[in-house]
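not sure who needs this but someone in the group chat was asking about Peptide methionine sulfoxide reductase MsrA from Enterococcus aquimarinus so here u go. i didnt clean anything up, its just raw.
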Amino acid sequence: MKMEQAIFAGGCFWCMVQPFDEAPGIHSVTSGYTGGHMANPTYEQVCSGTTGHTEAVEIIFDPEKISYDELLTIYWQQTDPTDAFGQFQDRGDSYRPVIFYMNEEQKQQAEASKAALAQSGRFDRPIVTTIEPAVPFYPAEMYHQDYYKKNPANFSRNHAKRAAFMKEKWGE
């Protein structure tokens, strides 16, 4: 079984894990940091805004069970692709929406899906999610992993604005 990797940033990584974690063909979803200039940053360092990192999720998946295009569909439905300066209540560069591609094929698929979303008319503002080459991904501290399972009440509070947006834009 050959696994592949995808990395997506879409605001608070706590809220990005569950939709991928529950999809078939997903081996693992890890919360972490990428896109910065410091090796092995801590949550506090990333939050300080001095490392250049973005909160993201690394997804290890079986492409025979779920395609990268299907992952992109899940991704778009979790984010506000018209907001370059954060997601929902989380503001700043560490929460910007980014698709980090692993190879040229992922880049082409991401660009095609972004163009299709822009042409769909679903959003009345430009799609500003960036598509960037993957750089080192650093797993977050253990207390951030599977946060939605460990802290369901706090997760629900943090996820409320995102959930309302998803329902408005994508329905049930």
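also The beta strands are 4-10, 26-34, 54-61, 86-87, 90-91, 97-101, 130-133, 137-139. if thats useful
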